[in-house]
Amino acid sequence: MLGLNKNDRTLLVIVAVLALLAPFILNPFPTDSSLAQFNAGYPDLMQKFVIFGIFAIGFNILFGLTGYLSFGHAAFLGIGSYSAVWIYKLFTYNVIPAMMLSVVMAAIFALLIGYISLRRSGIYFSILTLAFAQMSFALAYSVLSNPKFNLTNGETGLQVYANDIQMFHRDGLPDFPHIFGLSMGSTSKLPLGAWEFQFNVGYYFCAILMILAFYFSIRLFRSPFGMMLRAVKSNQQRMNYTGLNSRPYTLAAFVISGMFAGLAGGLLAATDPLAGAERMQWTASGEVVLMTILGGAGTLIGPVLGAGFIKYFENIFSKINDQVLHQWVSFMPDGLEDFVVALIHPFIGKGWHLTLGILFMLVVIFLPGGLVEGGQRIGRLFGRKKRAEDTADAAAKTPAE
Amino acid sequence: MGILEVKGVGKRFGGLAALSEVNLSVEENTVHAIIGPNGAGKSTLLNCLVGKLIPDTGSVMFDGQSVLGRKPHEINQMGISRVFQTPEIFGDLTVLENIMIPCFAKRDGSFRMHAFEQFAHEKELIEKSMAILEDVNMADKADMHSASMSRGDKRRLEMAMCLVQEPRLLLLDEPTAGMARADTNNTIDLLKEINEKRDITMAIIEHDMHVVFSLAERITVLAQGTPLVEDTPDNIKGNPKVQEAYLGESQH
Ligand SMILES: Nc1ncnc2c1ncn2[C@@H]1O[C@H](COP(=O)(O)OP(=O)(O)OP(=O)(O)O)[C@@H](O)[C@H]1O
Ligand SMILES: [Mg+2]
Questions:
Q1: Which residue of A has its CA nearest to B74?
Q2: A363-376 pLDDT per residue, tens
Q3: Which of A372, B111, B137, B215 reaches 20 to 30 Å from A346, CA-CA?
């Protein structure tokens, strides 16, 4: 079914169920409890999970399979956002044409940037992509934003104004990105006992696209084309002497991953109709690298996990402030309390990047295969325990294992 | 006219003349051995044939067409496959995948965007790959991670990768180096059979004289970048010049 084997189908179903039930799953704590701040089941954050999931799934097709490490993929994210907002400004708030333009524009730019950058490999490739992304950033931030020709609206960011053309906009349609009249911002709330669950149109739109992206990525991983991309990573010389031209393979992977990034950028603008240059900055490019490696580069589910992990902790850690900390450790004697708060202070709020850095180092050092490897190790641990129980007698005789 | 015609090829690395005035003609459907002491330029010559190096002078014609200036993948698509001196395989892939890749290259050309097709549906290619793995006695290792195999196995795998393409010319750079005696003999048998049954022309570089004299119909002796003699194995055996340049030197 769906052209997937049993394991892959299971994986797809798990991802689909998790994504569709996320408003429940990510909202385990009652609204009034002190733990409610750890809930992630609100539209804003859930949208980020799946949008950056798409970004990372695409990035993994390039980096995970071919080993080419791009440091400039945020450029495509930005291009996707700008394209979408231009559709809003000129034509309509409907997200379907906006997303299509986002993907197409990202593909065109990826073709250009990839064609040039892929003439080099290794660190030189990374630096070329970084240079292109920084150039795009500079273009968006200042060059393409002047009174005569304002494509990006510079520092303010591109947004929709009341006097924009919006050719196909009608009365009665929401003044916000929508899908055939259904606003991306509309949320229905379901109070259930002490809990309140939120179902947001924008989230479900993004989640369905993420599930589709994930499905596409499984198919690609298992296809002959995916095998060729792994061959590029493994031994490009052998590949060429085997009669295969590695260049178009890497370029195709680059363009596909650029299109995913463009879609993610478009979706950012679908849930919040604004495009800013900072979305193209190198920190944003670095973030998707972190997500992919943290989750497990070259694995199917890794990038999605990595994206969720980073976005979750970014949100939670940056929300915790000293006040919250004092509450938590209020059981301690006063002097000690202040000391502990001072100790933790640099790692929370704006300092959450420090925490991320430490987490990242721990993962890279102890789990080079990322969170996926961590999961596998835990799985094996349980598997062994179960086996050990099954054969308790045998194990008792040979405890050396 | 041979299927491969090398004329007046020279290649310098800085001050070192690795090859000078090399002429070589390989007849279709024969096994042609190239022997010579270490550093004689044998591998360099192969590099000039497959597009890894471009010679400074001379011409290289394959089946009436020049290979010079063509990219490695184009030369392979013309029908030349090469086994390297140090095994070049896809270490991260399984043995079967290693064989499938040249199969795809042969069937689909140098690039095809088969991103939505399924590997498991390529029954014909999988069968073909398994058959060649049988031939090199590696069928039981099909699902093995190829990097974890012994050097001898890697060599046999690389050879199978070339054979599955059914090239018109197969270039082998010391295919039995690092193999156990039994594997060497199997390899000789395999190459013999392939040459006879599938009409694959071979140029083989080899230090092992047992292999050379079991397979070759013609032998070229290379010394210090130039061909010393080209003759039949029997004549080469008795040639005093060869004794001196080749065998004499290796005894020092
Ligand atoms: N890329 C290179 N740059 C510089 N010198 C090289 C290069 N490749 C080969 N040489 C030199 O050219 C000469 C011939 O080398 P080559 O590898 O062709 O010898 P060979 O006959 O294959 O020897 P062996 O039997 O040891 O494999 C050697 O002196 C070698 O050092
Ligand atoms: Mg050599």
A1: A243
A2: 889 998 999 999 99
A3: A372
Residue nearest to atom 17 of ligand 1 (CA): B43
Tokens in use for A337? Answer: 């309390």
Interface mutation vs chain B, best among A5, A62, A244, A247, most B CBs within 10 Å = A244
E strand segments, chain B: 4-13, 16-26, 31-35, 57-62, 65-66, 80-83, 169-173, 201-205, 218-223, 226-231
Q: Tell me, which fold does domain B1-79+167-252 have in CATH?
A: Rossmann fold (3.40.50)
* Residue A331: partners with Cβ closer than 8 Å, 6 or more residues away: none
Torsion A168-A170-A174-A175 (CA) sign? positive
Q: Which residues have any ligand 1 atom within 6 Å of their CB?
A: B 13, 16, 18, 36, 38-44, 85
Q: A6-315 adopts what CATH topology?
A: ABC transporter involved in vitamin B12 uptake, BtuC (1.10.3470)
Contacts A243 to B, Cβ<8 Å: 73, 76-77, 102, 105-106, 109-110, 165
Does A230 contact B at CB distance below 8 Å? yes
To test the ligand 1 pocket, which listed residue (B44, B83, B172) has its Cβ within 8 A of the most ligand atoms? B44
Encode pLDDT of A274-325 as tens digits: 999 999 999 999 999 999 999 999 999 999 999 999 999 888 888 887 777 8
For atom 1 of ligand 1, which residue has the closest CA? B13
Give this prediction's pTM: 0.92
A54-101 per-position pLDDT tens digit: 999 999 999 999 999 999 999 999 999 999 999 999 999 999 999 999
Domain coordinates in residue numbering, chain A: 6-315, 316-364, 367-401
What 8-state DSSP symbol labels residue A142? I
- The two beta strands, B169-173 and B218-223, are unpaired
Cα B150 to Cα B128: distance, rounded to the nearest angstrom = 24
Name the most confidently modeled range: A143-152, A317-326, B155-164, B183-192: B155-164
Establish if B124 touches chain A: CB-CB under 8 angstroms: no
Residue B154 C-beta-side C-alpha neighbours within 13 Å: 20
Question: What residue ranges do the domains of chain B occupy?
Answer: 1-79+167-252, 90-165
